Amino acid sequence: CIGVKPYACTMCDKRFFQRYHLARHSLTHMVKPYACTMCDMKFFQRYHLARHSLTHTVKPYACTMCDKRFFQRYHLARHSLTHMVKPFACTMCDMKFVQRYHLARHSLTHTG
S-adenosyl-L-methionine: present as a keyword of the record (predicted)? Predict the structure, then answer.
């Protein structure tokens, strides 16, 4: 039948069209025994708590251009873009961009 949600949660009154959605929802009812002592986050595995705990203390990735530090290498790489030379300047305003594509996309804000 159209509109029938055959998969029901046994913990609450929610129902789902697909078994996968029920399985994903069921995770919300699981006990997360590993709680962070610095914030309200809780985790299923001790490893996830340990990794999360580093966000409150250790930030091993330091920017060489300023005094900012980051927990993950990816965050440092993303931040490093702020120090790059931005050769593509908008002729309508003071904005500058690292990539020509970003300038083209920005230009649409002026032209529609």
Answer: no
